[in-house]
Amino acid sequence: PVSLRKAWIALAGAATVALLLVGFAWWHARRWQDFVRRLDAEPGLVVTSSRASWFGVSQVHGLRDPLATDPAAIASGFGIEQARVAFDWKEYLALDPAILQHRFKQRFGLPGGVRLAVKGNQIELSGSAPYEWIERVRREQSRLPGVAAVSEQDLSITHDPERVLTDFRTLLAPPEGVQAAFADGVLTVSGDAPYEWASTWRENARRLPGVTSVQEQNLHVTVDPARVLRRFRENFGLPDTVTARVQTDGTLVLSGEASHPWLTRVQSEATAEVPGIRSLDDRDVIDLDQRAFQQTSSVIEHAFVYFLPSKDNFASEGFVALSRLPDEIRRLTSAAKHLGQEVRLEVRGSADGVGGEARNAELSQRRALAVRDFLVSCGLDAALFQTVGLGAPAPAANSNEPAAAEPSQRRVAFRVLSGPSSVTP
Q1: Spatial separation of the C-alpha atoms in residues 225 and 277, rounded to whole Å
Q2: CA-CA distance, 123 to 144, in Å (whole number)?
Q3: First CA to last CA across the chain, in angstroms?
Q4: Distance (Å, rounded) from C-alpha 126 to C-alpha 134?
Q5: Cα(59)–Cα(47) distance, rounded to whole angstroms?
Q6: For the stretch 127-166, what's the b/e string if a residue is b when 16 or more beta carbons lie within 10 angstroms of its beta carbon?
Q7: Are the C-beta atoms of 44 and 38 separated by less than 8 Å?
Q8: Is the whole model's pTM more than 0.70, yes or no?
Q9: Over the stretch 282-315, which tens digit does the pLDDT of each residue have?
């Protein structure tokens, strides 16, 4: 019986050891499987094969992104000694969101006010970021493996005032008399500055990063009159009949006499074409073409061509007056052309105060035609003239007697008609 009991004890002990060995083997296999699954689930790690060894060195083969967690640290977490496992990793670039986020932070860092999220292959930024940081991201994002785009839709940009002012001084080189301040996107300058610099400032200030508007209420802009006048002469020329000077406030002062085309061009283009000219004072400039037009119009409208009584033949004094008209009419049309006007002359014939109404109407028309034909024979365009027969004057309201023949009734007079030209002079 004693030997039998010992045999049972030995058998029970052997069974227990066997059970322990089976349990250990199961636990060891389960731990290894969990470890391998954990490795494969880690961002940046891909397990391609593995082999566990009870007494030797276990092996793991796969792919590893340089930014992935150290597999040895994961093994330690499972109680696996580093010496008991050999890793064989091939390097590759993972596209896991966590790895992309890590890769982005490693390259650019992440300012305190910026939040980062990964959606697919796109980085989404929100919050508030310094301009210099986001500019670097914009420049270098294409070099970030796995990142197709960076979204800034919910990101606001902040600008360091000192950095903006440094850019201002570097790019625009303000003169010593100019002071600058920057706040809330507004760049303010004050002090004294030459026009040339102020012109450059106005054109380029809004191109500075962070500048949304500019102010210069307290900026006093000065001009070099000699330099501005030289530019004006180069652009427009200066007729001998015109005197020009530039005031220190940028006003171009003209006096004298000038043609209408030259004066009109100066009025419309000087302030835009010549740096330093802010305004134009041309009150003392006489428009030669306007004056010529008014003078010749007056001469023509005060010229009368007289006829012999009851005839369409010129009287001697009428022919003298008529012979002077072609030159005046040519001066009139030339001045009108320079003014952008078209003119016509109404030739108004009158008849004597004797004879019947029909006869007087016909005689007045013939007299007007005679004057027109003479002027056309002097080389003037027939389309310039419009003839009108006025007939004879009506008798006085309190008289039934026909009007007596008066020299004023046997003449041709003129009226100048003008309007805007359809052709640019």
Answers
A1: 9
A2: 11
A3: 143
A4: 11
A5: 11
A6: eebbeebbeebeeebeebebbeebebeebeeebeeeebee
A7: no
A8: no
A9: 999 999 999 999 999 999 999 999 999 888 899 9
